[in-house]
């Protein structure tokens, strides 16, 4: 019974020590810096540090300061410098989804400059390149809302803008006629002479998760839904609208 009580006490003390352990950088007064898991022992009189398989014990008086990983300030913290208001997000990924009017997973890359209205909300402007049947330059406004003022956490976003074509149409559509063709003399096959790409609107809402590694660098992963309508013009008042409904999957880099 006594052995059981001793084991129980040791287990409780071990859990207590583990719960109080934190990871960070310990700065000693002699100029040394040790990165690892640290724990105060002996009623706070000493500091035990575990790093790279080694264990050091220092008197509390030898410690200059400790920077916990939770103490890292970023542009999204309440304690962040007030002059840090801008950050940049670069993303790349695919527009996934099969359809009859596009590739199965066109490549997409974009970047945006964003202004922090507060630590939760930011607004910005961005542009990119998307390789659909033709190459397009999406120009958009970017709205983001973060749920946590921490190093990592989820966010929601909305991109709204316009797809600007950078090349002519690469597709020929057959047997498509203007609406008035059923009332006027039959004009012939209007779709064989080619089309002019006019671009179209885009909407891209979604949700993501971001992790900040330092005050000015982080990464993000995001998924969303993208709708864009591409417009084409042809001869004799011919026009064609094609709707795209895609799932966006992107990895991003955050910096300022």
TrEMBL record:
Keywords for this protein: Signal
Signal peptide: 1-19
Keyword Signal attached: yes
Domain of life per record: Bacteria
Protein name: Uncharacterized protein
Record organism: Draconibacterium orientale
Source taxonomy: Bacteria, Pseudomonadati, Bacteroidota, Bacteroidia, Marinilabiliales
